[in-house]
Amino acid sequence: MRAAGVKNFIFSSSATVYGDQPKIPYVESFPTGTPQSPYGKSKLMVEQILTDLQKAQPDWSIALLRYFNPVGAHPSGDMGEDPQGIPNNLMPYIAQVAVGRRESLAVFGNDYPTPDGTGVRDYIHVMDLADGHVAAMEKLAGREGVHIYNLGAGVGSSVLDVINAFSKACGKPVNYHFAPRPRWRPPGLLGGCRKGRPRAELARYARP
User: Fold this and answer.
1) Rounded mean pLDDT, 6-26
2) Residues annotated catalytic, as ranges
3) In terms of pTM, does the model score above 0.70?
């Protein structure tokens, strides 16, 4: 990048860098915490490296995009929630149960302090996430420094909310069973996307 004279950098980070905060929604002004997963720790490490880079070379413009929970597919259907390996998020598992590739979905925990006892997360459509990247590129032009943006819908949905919405949309029941929850998993993770919302710094509403 230095050889090519490129000094703009967008990093796909994660809301997991906030760790377990005492308040929700999580906003960009919150300090980073102590991520409990290797994934979150690796994202925080890269954020720190990029922040140090910008301090050493102040003419760099860096955007840290903190994703919440990306879901969904491209409208063409060519890219979506059908990973080749083992899924690492909720939506592909739900889809696999709905089409008969799995008998049942394991819902980890039904004793969280949430309305239905299952974990609540902030889900953002992948097309909105793509729009967020384009908006970030436009905002970086001529803006030196490190700029942090939460990318989420700002709306919380429980695991059962997502299962029921999927079942209604596809017209098929989605079988599920409850399993013990991981100790490290927080009950709720909701983004306060103050900077990643319209009339602020990144344009376009996220689709709830």
Assistant:
1) 91
2) 39
3) yes
